[in-house]
Write a structure and sequence with these properties.
154 residues, alpha/beta, three-stranded mixed β-sheet, two-stranded parallel sheet, elongated
Length: 154
């Protein structure tokens, strides 16, 4: 689903059958995220269809995911964002070359695709790419959708 660029919500049914205490739901969420770390930005819902428990929340989250899939962020906002995060954590130098991000823009929605224009796109390490991805998700509240980032030479 994520590789195809589709929205995703994790629905855990039969929650009425689980022996629970006050922290069971949070612990189960953490177990899922520990097993599949890339799911940390996707909603995880616990429902019981039999008891009609939190079933209405599913549609609310699906609508929110759909709205996020169509969300378009202005280039000016993205450039302010990229300036702020690179000031907090500048790109590393790789093989004696200083990496510099010139600007960022959103190319498409559905799937959400951002283009980062920089001087050496092939040299950006994976951890810095994840840093940009995570920062985009937190700043612009992208939940339940995959974000693609393309590094391009400018």
């Amino acid at each position: 689903v994520i590789d195809k660029g589709k929205g995703l919500a994790i629905i855990v049914n039969k929650w009425d059958l689980v022996d629970k205490d006050t922290h069971t739901m949070e612990e189960t969420k953490l177990d899922i995220i520990d097993t599949f770390p890339h799911l940390q930005y996707y909603p995880i819902l616990f429902i019981s269809v039999k008891n009609n428990f939190r079933v209405r929340n599913v549609l609310k989250h699906v609508r929110s995911i759909y709205a996020d899939m169509k969300k378009k962020v202005k280039t000016a906002e993205l450039n302010i964002f990229i300036e702020r995060i690179t000031r907090l954590n500048p790109p590393p130098s790789v093989k004696g070359k200083f990496l510099k991000i010139k600007y960022i823009t959103q190319i498409s929605t559905y799937p959400v695709l951002f283009a980062v224009y920089c001087n050496h796109p092939h040299l950006f390490p994976e951890n810095y790419r994840r840093y940009i991805d995570n920062s985009l998700r937190k700043t612009f509240n992208f939940r339940g959708i995959p974000i693609r980032i393309s590094f391009r030479k400018k």
